[in-house]
Amino acid sequence: MAAVRHVEMLAVKGEVLAFQCKSFSSKTRDHRKGSEVSFYSLSFARDSQSFSIRDRNLSLIHKDGSAEADVVHCCSALDIQQRQKVPCVLLRLCKKRTSAFKYMLYSICTSTDAKLHAEFVLPYEMRDNISILLGPALIWSHENSVFYTSSQTSGVKEVPIPMTVNFIGELPLRRRKLVIQGAQNVPSDQSKVKNILYFIEDGRTLSSACLVPDAYSSVIQCMMVLSAEEFDGGWRSAVLAATSMKQLVRFENGLPLDVCLLPYEQPLSIQVIHTLKNDGLVVVTFSQGNVCAVWKDTFQVAGCWTGVRLLLVDDFMGCGTDQMLLVFESSSAEPLSSFLLTDLCAVTYSCCRSDGEELNSSDAAQENHLLTVQALESRLQSGLSGLEDLQRDVEVKDRLLQQSLVALTDLVSGREHHSLDPVYDDDDGAGDEEDAGMQTECAEAPLKMHRVWQRVIGQSLIVGVVLTTTSNTYVRFTLQIIKTVFQYCHAPCSVFQQKLFGESGRHCTPSCCGSYEARDDLLSLLALLDVWFFRLECPCHTLADVQGWLQESLRFERLEIDPRFTADPSSVRLFRWEQNSPFQGILSVYCRDELSLLHFLHSLCDFLPVSHDVQPLERPSVCAGSLAQTLQTEIHTVTQEASSVLRTDEGARRGEAESQTLHNLREEWLKERGRCNERLRPLLDETRYSRLIERMIHAQLDADEAALMEAPRL
């Protein structure tokens, strides 16, 4: 009678393909034991929430009446003749009283047929680094040698380079795909090793540093290559590797990018699950039946399980995304009597598993859960503060509408109405009283000019005005920056750059230039430079340290006169980083041209992780535009009138009086220009204005009288 010894399973096209080994005793006198290997398929039924056999008739792969057959390894590989992935299985036949082992490599062509690709005999038992790859080709290692065979090779071939194998797999390249990564002893010094990549197709070798650094090669126990390509004589690659130090490391272009602490030791394999959330999962299997799942985007542990006999990944639900099937140890004869089918997102089905056993919380998982909860709490607090701000804005708008309606009603009815109350209120009582006093005083008292300063940068004249309103207890300063085109003077921006920074690039202190002067220089640059605003967001975790990157990586320096701004000592660029919440911030960039902006944005995108989002914001309108236009018109008027006066007087007077008059006019014009520099608008003396008007009236009367006397003669 035949007895089922064991069952191996493989995921194929959303179903589970099971390979079953049976042993039986022959009817001959020596009672030799025979065996057979067959296969069948199981599919998941949502109604019963279990796996059922699709066809009760078993399909036979191999049968031998004098040897015991075992399944050594099974997986899916690309058949280069059929140009599609097919399930493959490696069988081992062993006869008693012999020391040789016979191996056969089959592929499952249809639901009932199997095809033999390779058959060979080895004097030893195959145990280490067994892989079925493109071809299908069988690759394995024994001691310090690597062997391979397929239907295209005549027998078993040996790799000519002895090495200690770390990884056997496929690279997503066009020509060379089958690769072996291992350590080779240096011939000149046996104490040193060299980590190499060996391509089986053409025998080419190169350094494995293009995938992982040499320092990690000795501790890597399993690896998965996500992407690889040759680019400009180098390599671009993305690799996941599990080390003996309980770490899952993500490498990009041969450099470590991220690390996740694993809860178990002795990792065996790595698989990627494409789910609907968080860019998928990375699942690591360990010895002793342990499994750990890690979110691919955040690189945090998502779940852990123990007592797992087998892990399969495929679209068992037929929903378009992957799920992982965890098959647990069970005393039942059924192959899928205890399992968990889940993607940790929206799909979870279990059989013979209690709710408490679904997810094993390891120390690393608990720590990651705590960090996740803290991040969610901070996001919730940020959202609540934003909601409170919106509620305050709504209250302010409602209050303003009510006051406007009352004022409009009083205006229509002809009644006297009072001015509107302050719209924005602070939380502090003292601040409320002070702001209320400030609002009423600003409405009653006229603004006075406290100080005027100007800077000439390039072809631009920057004029700053400090306006003040004075009361018994409160003084308010308002600063307006006016920028207008000025064609008569020229000063490079380096002058202001040297005043903001010393010769060695250090900030200017009040001892080397007054605080007023340094602040005026900063405000002049802010008025001159164009500004762009960018919102940085990361919905998954906290933002990267943008301010630290500006100062440490780009070597930009904060201004002592205003620490909110960071300046580039090598060019005229200013930056201001305002982080509104742990997940959002506003970056303001002040520069003269868009090319410089694009260079900076390129560096910023290289620094930010993929999870960050950068969005440009609309630039607000500049309130100083009308003032600058007024000043420009006034300058044009003054220069034009002065020129016309000079031309008129030069044509009317000649000789010695002409030069003296021109000199006097120039002196008068210089005085007038000095007055314009000291005040925002030039003032006219009242006595002089009255005399001028009186002279004009007398001249008009004399002209009228002369006209009347000439009238009778005509």
Automatic annotation (TrEMBL):
Origin superkingdom: Eukaryota
GO biological process terms, semicolon-separated: interstrand cross-link repair; negative regulation of double-strand break repair via homologous recombination; positive regulation of double-strand break repair via homologous recombination; replication-born double-strand break repair via sister chromatid exchange
GO CC terms in record: Fanconi anaemia nuclear complex
InterPro entries cross-referenced by the UniProt entry: FANCB (IPR033333)
Annotated protein name in UniProt: FA complementation group B
High-level lineage: Eukaryota, Metazoa, Chordata, Craniata, Vertebrata
